[in-house]
């Protein structure tokens, strides 16, 4: 399958109509994305939304049941050449717990062609992590740092991380993000990071993908998304009659007031009765998740919108 | 060398907070021409923020003629904001204190004063016929 329209030198991940099914349930459906290189992307959505499935498809652990996924233009499934360019930190950092960090670095060198053992050793030494203690005995934060250092030792062009900070305490989370951002600044690696927590990612990510009910609800550069959405508060009005509103994401009415989060196209109401506010990333994610939720519930109950 | 600090409760975007902190440091003389700004890698690593955000802030400072990137070396301050504005600030502050006392005497509360200042700033500083300085 060829993907026209996406320049492979500028795109880290391209998916087209990508789907994965477990028995009769679609875990991911109709997923079309282009993740440009050099981005740090957040893959956000509730548990069970399909985040892990998407990451596993991108790292070649799963084969698609529909559509296609390309990483730097190549199909990652069973493709050692493509996989050499991808670093992956799986959920809960499943390391061989009886091995020490030093042994894991040596092991990585035997399993990977491009392996920067010195880089991994320097990173872990800077973080004060014991080289000769079984990693099972390290703290959760330290184990996450070992997993990150091992993934970075491959010198990957794309780094995929599945919920790397969900299980960590706030300090360890911050330290992990510090290590990750420092490494990205040095290497320019493209990052795709899944999380059901947004707060820790807000300052780290410049690209957002929202997954819900196995579908992509929203994706794009964070700056563009924030720029193209507004919260509008004004007198009760049918949403389609407000100038400048391209799409209503979320709306609520009282007997006299309407509150909307909307995608806007520039010409916003100048009527002073309307208050127009910029949105935060969190506003945006919540609105899109709620929208998808309502739609899914209505479908399940066979109720019309 | 300065160290960047972010205000977690501010609505100001992260990159703009970095720009404003440099400008503030230039105004009060904490930074002067020739000084090096922290490396992108260090800022991203210590604040746990996207390196592109730091690059964007430094680019903005370059566009405003306040800093200059030297490839492979770092970003350096080229111009200061201290000087005349620092001395005239004392006078301006005095005027402002006088005005605030007057506003209080006229019965305006803190929120009334903030609202009046904000609307006036918007009307005067963002007025259509005004040149950017």
Précis, in short:
In chain A, the strands form 3 sheets. A 6-stranded mixed sheet of chain A has the order 5-6-7-3-8-9, with helices on both faces. Chain A has helices at residues 51-58, 80-83, 101-111, 117-126, 140-153, 170-187, 222-227, 281-301, and strands at 11-22, 25-36, 40-44, 66-71, 86-89, 158-162, 190-195, 207-212, 215-221, 229-235, 245-253, 257-264, 275-278.
Kindly report the name of the CATH homologous superfamily of the largest domain in chain A.
P-loop containing nucleotide triphosphate hydrolases
Order of helices and strands of chain B: HHHEEHH
Globally, the shape of chain B reads elongated
Determine the mean pLDDT of chain B: 89
H and E string of chain A? EEEHEHEHHHEHEEEHEEEEH
Helix content of chain B: 40-55%
CATH top level label of the largest domain in chain A = Alpha Beta
Widest sheet: strand ordering of chain A: 5-6-7-3-8-9
Report the total helices of chain B. 5
Explain what you see:
The complex is a heterodimer of chains A (305) and B (133). By secondary structure, chain A is of the alpha/beta class. Chain A contains 8 helices and 13 strands. In chain A, the strands form 3 sheets. A 6-stranded mixed β-sheet of chain A has the order 5-6-7-3-8-9, sandwiched between helices. In chain A, a hairpin with a 2-residue loop joins strand 8 and strand 9 (215-221). The longest helix of chain A has 21 residues, at 281-301. In chain A, 43% of the residues are buried. The longest helix of chain B has 22 residues, at 84-105. Chain B starts with 13 loop residues before the first helix and ends in an 8-residue tail after the last helix. The A-B interface holds A 38, 40, 174, 177-182, 184-186, 203-206, 278 and B 6, 11, 14, 40-42, 44-54.
């Amino acid at each position: 399958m060829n993907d026209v329209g996406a320049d492979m030198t500028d795109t880290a991940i391209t998916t087209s109509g990508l789907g994965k099914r477990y028995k009769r349930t679609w875990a991911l459906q109709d997923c079309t994305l282009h993740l440009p290189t050099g981005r740090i992307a957040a893959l956000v959505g509730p548990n069970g939304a399909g985040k892990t499935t998407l990451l596993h498809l991108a790292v070649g652990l799963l084969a698609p049941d529909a559509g296609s996924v390309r990483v730097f233009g190549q199909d990652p499934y069973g493709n050692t050449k493509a996989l050499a360019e991808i670093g992956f930190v799986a959920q809960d950092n499943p390391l061989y717990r009886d091995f020490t960090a030093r042994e894991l670095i040596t092991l990585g060198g035997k399993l990977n062609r491009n392996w920067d053992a010195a880089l991994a050793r320097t990173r872990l030494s800077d973080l004060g992590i014991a080289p000769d203690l079984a990693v099972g005995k390290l703290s959760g934060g330290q184990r996450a740092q070992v997993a990150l250092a091992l993934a970075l030792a491959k010198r990957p062009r794309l780094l995929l991380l599945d919920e790397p900070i969900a299980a960590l305490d706030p300090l360890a989370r911050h330290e992990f993000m510090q290590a990750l951002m420092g490494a990205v600044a040095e290497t320019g690696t493209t990052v795709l990071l899944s999380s059901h927590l947004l707060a820790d990612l807000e300052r780290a990510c410049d690209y957002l993908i929202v997954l819900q009910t196995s579908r992509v609800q929203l994706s794009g550069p964070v700056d563009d998304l924030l720029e193209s959405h507004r919260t509008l508060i004004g007198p009760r009005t049918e949403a389609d009659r407000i100038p400048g509103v391209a799409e209503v994401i979320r709306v609520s009415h009282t007997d006299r007031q309407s509150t909307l989060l909307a995608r806007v196209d520039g010409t916003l109401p100048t009527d002073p009765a309307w208050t127009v506010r910029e949105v935060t990333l969190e506003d945006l994610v919540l609105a899109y998740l709620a929208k998808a939720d309502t739609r899914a519930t209505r479908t399940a109950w066979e109720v019309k919108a | 060398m300065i160290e960047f600090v972010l205000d977690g409760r501010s609505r100001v975007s992260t990159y703009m907070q970095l720009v404003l902190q440099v400008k503030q440091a230039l105004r009060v003389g904490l930074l002067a021409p020739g000084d090096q700004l922290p490396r992108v890698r260090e800022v991203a690593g210590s604040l746990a923020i996207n390196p592109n955000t730091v690059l964007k802030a430094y680019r903005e400072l370059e566009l405003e003629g306040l800093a200059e990137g030297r490839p492979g070396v770092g970003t350096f301050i080229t111009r200061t904001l201290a000087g005349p504005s620092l001395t005239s600030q004392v006078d301006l502050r005095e005027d402002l204190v006088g005005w605030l006392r007057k506003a209080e005497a006229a019965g305006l509360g803190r929120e009334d004063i903030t609202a009046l200042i904000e609307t006036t700033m918007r009307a005067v500083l963002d007025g259509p016929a005004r040149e950017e300085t």
